[in-house]
Design a protein that fits this description.
Helix content is 12%, strand content 33%. It is mainly beta.
Length: 338
C-alpha cells in the first residue's frame, strides 16, 4: 500500500515561491488578461515555476510530503509536514477516486494522522518524525492492524460511484462533516458551482498560471478565488476542506513557449495565509486529469497549542475552469483559542 517512490518525484518538482505582504499580493497573472490597470491591481507578480502538466501534483515551499499510502481501490493518503516561518504543523490529503472507499468507510473517520499511519503500515516501516512529534497516538490497535484486514479482504474495496458527471452529489456535505467529526464549529458550502455564473469565479480570461507567453489562448477560462487573494476561511486553529470534481469539461490544447499543454486545468490548489497575514503560499496543487472526473480531494490541517502561531487563513483555489465544469466545495473549521 506504500508508494514512497512517488513522494521523491513530487519533492523534486519546482516549488511555489512563498509570497509576502499577502494583504495586497496576488498569486500571479497579468492584469492585461482582466483588463485592469495598475490602480486596480497594484501587486501582480509573475509566476516563475513551470506550468503543471495534466495530472501533475506539486507541493509548496515549506511543505514536505512525509509519505503516501495507497488503499486498495485507489484512494491515496498523503501525510505532509508544514514548516512555515519556523512554525511546524501537520496536514493530510485524501485523494479519493469515484467509486473508491475512503477513511470514513473503514472506520477511521475520527483517527489522527498518526493513528491512520500506524494502522496501515507494518512494524518495519519507520514512522516519520514529525508524525510522532505533532500527532496523537490513540492506541487504536496493534501496528498495521487495518492493513492486515485490508490485505485479508475484510472490507468491500469498491463502492458505487456517488458523483454523476455534470450533476453534483447531494452527499458531499455528509462526506465532509462525517470525516474528522471533531472539527464541526463552522461551515461554508458551495454546491454545484458553475464557473461562468457563480460569484466566487471570475472570467472569462486567458488561462492563468503559465508564466510564459502562450498562443491559442482563447478567453474562455474561469478562475475561483484567484483574484484579490480571497481567502475563504479566516484565523482558524483546525480545519478541513474538500472539493468534488463533479464534471471536468473538454479543454483545447495550449501552445506555451516551446511546449504544448494538453487538457490544461482545472488546477486545484489548497492555499494558506499565516497568522497576521505575514505570508501566503500553497500547500498542494494538482492539475486534474479528465479521468479524475467524479473524484474528491480532502485536506485536514491542525495547528498546535504550543506553536504560538496557529491562526491560519485557508482557501480552495481552482484555476482554469471551463463553463462545462461543475464542483462541490466545502469548508469546516474550528477556533480553539490558541
Amino acid at each position: 500500500m506504500r508508494t514512497t517512490d512517488v513522494i521523491f518525484a513530487l519533492v523534486s518538482a519546482s516549488p511555489m515561491l512563498l509570497a509576502t505582504a499577502c494583504d495586497t499580493e496576488h498569486d500571479s497573472f497579468e492584469a492585461e488578461a482582466l483588463g485592469l490597470d495598475d490602480a486596480d491591481a497594484p501587486a501582480l507578480d509573475r509566476l516563475t515555476e513551470t506550468p503543471l502538466q495534466d495530472g501533475e501534483e506539486r507541493f509548496g515551499e515549506g511543505v514536505t510530503p512525509l509519505d503516501r499510502l495507497t488503499l486498495p481501490g485507489g484512494t491515496e493518503l498523503t501525510f505532509v509536514h508544514l514548516d512555515i516561518a519556523g512554525e511546524a504543523s501537520l496536514g493530510m490529503i485524501e485523494k479519493q477516486p469515484a467509486g473508491a472507499v475512503g477513511l470514513a468507510d473503514l472506520g477511521l473517520e475520527s483517527a489522527s494522522p498518526l493513528d491512520i499511519y500506524l494502522a496501515l503500515t507494518d512494524a518495519e516501516t519507520e514512522v516519520p518524525a514529525p508524525l510522532r512529534a505533532l500527532s496523537l497516538d490513540h492506541e487504536l490497535g496493534a501496528r498495521g492492524w487495518l492493513g492486515e484486514q485490508l490485505d485479508g479482504g475484510a472490507f468491500e474495496l469498491t463502492a458505487p460511484p456517488d458523483v454523476a458527471a455534470a450533476a453534483c452529489d447531494a452527499g458531499f456535505q455528509s462526506y465532509l462533516t462525517n470525516w474528522q467529526p471533531q472539527v464541526s464549529e463552522n461551515y461554508e458550502w458551495g454546491f454545484n458551482e458553475d464557473p461562468d455564473s457563480d460569484s466566487d469565479w471570475y472570467g472569462p480570461t486567458e488561462p492563468l498560471g503559465l508564466g510564459i507567453a502562450c498562443s491559442d489562448c482563447s478567453e474562455t477560462w474561469w478562475h475561483r478565488d484567484y483574484y484579490n487573494d480571497q481567502f475563504e476561511i479566516w484565523n482558524v486553529d483546525e480545519m478541513k476542506m474538500a472539493v468534488s470534481a463533479c464534471s471536468i469539461g473538454w479543454r483545447p490544447s495550449i501552445s506555451a513557449g516551446n511546449q504544448t499543454l494538453s487538457h490544461y486545468g482545472p488546477t486545484l490548489r489548497f492555499r494558506y495565509r499565516t497568522e497576521g497575514n505575514v505570508s501566503s503560499g500553497q500547500v498542494y496543487s494538482n492539475d486534474l486529469e479528465e479521468a479524475e472526473e467524479g473524484g474528491r480531494w480532502r485536506w485536514y490541517w491542525g495547528g498546535t497549542p504550543a506553536s504560538g502561531d496557529n491562526d491560519y487563513d485557508w482557501t480552495i483555489e481552482i484555476a482554469n475552469g471551463r463553463a462545462s465544469d461543475r464542483f462541490d466545495i466545502g469548508f469546516v473549521y474550528d477556533h480553539h483559542g490558541w
